[in-house]
Amino acid sequence: MLIWLILGLLQSFNLRGKRPDIQSEVYEGELNCLCRVHHDSKLVAGCGDGKLYMFHWGQLAYHSAEYPGHPDAINDLVAATDNVVITACEDGVVRLAAFYRQLNSL
Length: 106
Fold this sequence. Notes:
4-stranded antiparallel sheet, mainly beta, Thrombin, subunit H, 3-stranded antiparallel sheet
């Protein structure tokens, strides 16, 4: 089970063992939204400081990639395909973000 906290960190729990499992580092902005991409092997988090953070599923202690570019907080995101997410930003603009070299970021 994965829980994200407004405090700016991800926390996973081992439900069978009834204990916390992995905790990410604490980020400057709150983590507002999450979605899974790349055949469910990656987790993307939208942050209050306008950055997208990508994590390897199962290795949540530290992000594997960081994507700045939004001027304000990212309020929501949804996976459009395995490589593209749609983000809704505090400034009212909806954006597409592509994560792999065969696609260009918009």
